[in-house]
Amino acid sequence: MSELVYFCGTMDCGKSTLALQIEHNRSARGLRGMIFTRNDRAGSGVLSSRLGLFTKAVEAADGFDFYAHLVAHLSGGGRADYVIADEAQFFTPDQVDQLARVVDDLEIDVFAFGITTDFRTRLFPGSQRLVELADRIEVLQVEALCWCGARATHNARTVGGRMVVEGAQVVVGDVNQAEHEVGYEVLCRRHHTRRMTAAAARAAALSPDVLPVE
Length: 214
Prior knowledge:
Blueprint: E1 4-8, H1 15-27, E2 33-37, E3 46-48, E4 54-56, E5 58-59, H2 66-75, E6 82-85, H3 93-106, E7 109-114, H4 125-133, E8 136-139, E9 154-159, E10 162-164, E11 182-187, H5 189-193, H6 198-206
Parallel strand pairs: 1-7, 1-8, 2-5, 2-6, 6-7
Antiparallel strand pairs: 3-4, 9-10, 9-11
Helix pairs in contact: 2-3, 3-4
């Protein structure tokens, strides 16, 4: 039976790389898929990995209807053996419902990839709906690491190397951004709670007036 599978993890844990690998493996066996994404770091209409791999994709904005798009594609003689939906945390709950309907009514496998929580440790609406509806949830085993070496479990938004905890939920950025830009850093829970980024840890280590973190 067809499935809605949600692959999730922090930033920098290989979600988009896995999406591209699944696309490669299935297309190499003669299957045809449809690829969707939203707000990819490389721009509109592309699914990209930090390893430098990329492929074309359909940009799914707020008003986009996955089910209607697939029905129109199939009705026009097109073929779709599977669906890959990257950056799924940015989809609306209604769009996630549409993906579930693609699985149930059209009997097409849907592989969704996304971040579960935002920089404030709050669930993204799209991710919450995927957790509620997915047939299977896969937490990626390629572990991103905090600067301290522990497994990273949280995404921090940074400006000038300092962690910020206020602002819009969706601000497109990436890890390893220039200091003056909005960027992101993956942290363990302890250092996310303490707002201790790599830059803040270096500054603390250089100061004679503060106690060590550990």
